[in-house]
Amino acid sequence: MSRPRQDLFLHVRSEPNPNEHPTLWEHRLKQRRPLSLNPFDHSGPRAQYEDTNTKRPSLAGNRSESENIQPGKAVQESSQEDVLTSNKNQDIVWGEQAPEWLNLFYDLAWTATFASLTSNNKFKAPWDSVTYVVFFTIAWWIWTSQVFYSIDFYTDDWFHLLVVFLQLIIFGALAAVTRGIDVSDYILHSPDSAAWEPTDIESMTPEAYSADKVTMISFEAIALVLAFSRLLLLVQHIRVVIYAKLTTRSKSFPWKLILVPISLAISTALFFAAFSITRGHGTEINGAKAKFYLWAVGIFVEIVAHIIWLQWDVRDGLSLKSHGSIVNRFCGITTIIIGEGINAIAGTFYALEKAPGFGGPTAGGIVSCAFIVFFLVYLYFQGAAPLQAVRRRAAWAMVHLPWLLSTILLLEGVKNQLLLSGFLNSVGHMLGATQDILLADVDETTFSSTFGYLLLQVGISLDDQYKKYSDLEDQYLSWFNLTALDDDSSGVVLEMWYARLKMTNIVNLYVTFMDNDTITDGIHETIFQYQNDFNTTYQDVIGIEETILIETTWQLIKSTVTNARYIMALSGFTFISLAVMNLIQSWPRDRFQWASIISRFVMGIAMSILLLLNIGKYQVYFAPSYPERAGIFNWIDANWVLPTIALAYGLQFIIDTILVYVAVWFTRKSRTGMAETEKME
User: Fold this and answer.
1) Which runs of consecutive H residues, i.e. helices, occur in 12-76?
2) Where are the domains of the chain?
3) Counting Cβ atoms within 10 Å, is residue 467 exposed (0-12), middle (13-18) or buried (19+)?
4) d(Cα 351, Cα 362) in Å, to the nearest integer?
5) Torsion, Cα of 367, 372, 377, 380 (10° steps)
6) What angle do CA 121, 126, 132 make, to 5 degrees?
7) pLDDT at 41
8) How far apart are CA 445 and CA 448, in angstroms?
């Protein structure tokens, strides 16, 4: 029997046939979306081809779900009514959902803002973290409030596709204008400066003018974009209210649907007021503060309204077309955020690879980072209860803000600690190896080859150092009007040359691990003066200790060491956030579930107690008495910061795993005993 002839152009003139090609027909029906669909009305252009056997629940029960129902699976008619009447405010999925590509596209649009905030923030100063927290919270709420709307009221129409397109513009604009922004600008200091700069044209420097102009435009753009985002969400909710009024079969209007639009109207007015103030008085202290106050009040009003709205049941004959799940959306955004943290940590490997002194401590830090990331992901997705059994959606979603903030700040802290550890180990290796070769009794050829190779590892030329040593000898003779150097003078010149070499080593290694932008102008000036001014280096060398060299090194690493001071608190907060999420997600059913939640609380408190390591007489890394300095510095020197965090997450992983196995064993044992008792009876 011959096979049917396959012709590429066989159906060029064929008419559409829904019976022969039903899949293609259904696909076209979905693409033939109207301008706007009623989220409460089940009739529509595609109703005759939909499955009419599935009964849609009323809006009174759209926030209920049995713990056995999984997101993304259809609810069976036989159990649906029981589910809707017996459980309140749970995450249920039914009806036609938004396309996965559309949700992913929206999440990726938000990721542009998040990635820009994270990659452009150095996290070197306290205000860097404050700035990040402020704008991350705002961006997160823009995303969350839109998700809250979409899971209830999304319909497959051109209106919502346009909304997603506009959201892309919003997040793209935020990603562009939040780069290099500092919330303390115009409040504590002038932009890109540690102090207040003159603002009159005659006294203003070109650098100060450029920084002021960019910052002013950025804040105005941020204020306008945020106001537009609230207006866009308000329009969507007003549309829902209009459809509700047209659809309801009751004489009374479902006023509970008005709560969120009212809050959005208030916040929109506040955000546009913030834009007006920023545009007119943004460079004044009170004006700069006012915009943050208005933003905070507006977001707070919205959050309260959404929390109340998500707890209410709306009746009056209204029923939704579909209902989505926040669990999948928040799990997805958590994965994206942790992925950004992984990317930040992985970016340090290049510096670690090319820097000298790579050894056991650095390798241990890398392995610890891997364990930290893995256990963070595991503890989030493998909690005490399955993720689909969310009892209180609003509370569970809100706890994600501190969880996500603490997680990304922790991963950034882990990255900075890995860089600090690599920097200190490399500096120790270079200074130790340099001292060894200078004191070694070797011939000139061996000295030149060994020392030259060592210097090349940090970007220094041996010939250049010979020249600098010779120049120092000439400067010394000229400074003291001498014709020749005696042994003492030669020793001083050697110490000066070695001090400058150490400074060059430290600076080059710092730039290898950290960004050059993190070195302030003041430190740059000190380094330049130390390397080029004879008297500065001479006075530092003949003193009791090299004060300038030590102080400059401390100023370089101070901000990174400060991150290590509080990294334990961030780790502890992730444990506490996970425990709270598990508690909200599903009320504990037995002592084993309680044990898992309580152990996370205890672990979080235990990690926070490690903040006591900051107690000590000396709060600087280079202290007069090392035993009397804060314990945090000894902890850093021992390279135990990252392993301690990894051990904490690993211990929690072991506790949870043991509890699971014991709970299963105990349950099976109890069932066996009950079965034997029934047989005896």
Assistant:
1) 22-31
2) 17-46+95-324, 55-93, 333-681
3) exposed
4) 11
5) 160
6) 40
7) 66
8) 5
